[in-house]
Structure of Aconitate hydratase:
Amino acid sequence: VNLEYLGRVVFNANGLLYPDSVVGTDSHTTMIDGLGVAGWGVGGIEAEAAMLGQPMSMVLPGVVGFKLTGTLNNGVTATDLVLTVTQILRKHGVVGKFVEFYGGGMGELSLADRATIANMSPEYGATMGFFPVDHVTLQYLRLTGRSDETVKMIEAYLRANKMFVDYNEPQIERSYSSYLELDLSSVEPCISGPKRPHDRVTLKEMKSDWHACLDNKVGFKGFAIPKEKQEKVV
């Protein structure tokens, strides 16, 4: 509902335009970041204060720039991509930080793909995983019933404030606290587990990884099941 209907991207209050933002008590409020709307989860007290008209305050976070290049191979899904991204970001360490995705590979991702990655922010630990507005975003807004007038207003405002990304134009060099990069063509079909979403396992390694987990000592990647019990049929 937030993506398809409630999200404004740009508010128009009697001729005063300003970017949309949202906070919610659900940690997966971050899904809206796939639409170019800054959003993240907060506690109940913070949410109540916002509902009563009080301003939100926060420490200015570090921003991790995550560059996407290339294209996904046939058969590779958004789930495969998000599990790969989650593993990379967990290894890098992004707790309490914003992650902004950019680069030529962005044009290969649908709004649904972006929303899937943004939705997983709690799993990779970031406050948000943000996707700037581009032509894919505008196409989605039209698809979900926003008027042409509204979409044109959004594009004009964001272009005027250098917040719109047009990959057909030369890109401005971005400055971030730290940088990561992923070639989408390197993403393989995968799953995660057995206990944590960032423990990614490619499908071709799934069988060997599972048998290793049965043998390993009890932990995130182990069950310590004796060999004789592994053969037991229930």
Summary: The radius of gyration is 20 Å. Strands lie at 10-13, 16-19, 21-24, 38-41, 63-69, 98-102, 128-130, 178-183, 190-192, 200-202. The longest strand covers residues 63-69.
